[in-house]
Design a protein that fits this description.
By secondary structure, the protein is an all-alpha fold. The protein has helices spanning about 10-65, 65-75, 90-95, 110-120, 125-140.
Length: about 160
Amino acid sequence: MAARPRFTSRATVLVLVLCSLVAILAYPTRQFISQRAEISAQRAKADHARQQVEQLRREKARWQDPEYVKAQARARLHYAVPGETPYIAVDPAGQDSAKPSSSAAGAPATGAATGQARAAKPWYSSIWDSVDAADAAAQAPAHPLPLPPSPVGDTSPHDH
């Protein structure tokens, strides 16, 4: 009896057809999976946008209420209704912290004192101060000037 070949020609053709089908379908399957992932990401993005739109609609509805507008004007802009006397409460302990201590004469002021100083100055003054500070920083030399050589072995007369 003759030995039968392990693979017949039909089996070889069948394996080649199956391998070519896998190779042909691999790319479209990968594209399909990536497009499904992209679709789900776009849906999530659309849901987030819908939530933002709904939040903005609620905020717009609140701004239609005159009482809400008055409350916001009082809180944000420190407005007062005609007939009211607006006042600002000052913390007496905060005034003492505005004075620099003798040990920190050249140090920056504390947070409370800085906040009070900023509140006392108009906004355009703060902007101009920052422009001046930037100009001073730009004019300062980038590297310190070198010191002159030390007079080692100097024979000139000195007062001792």
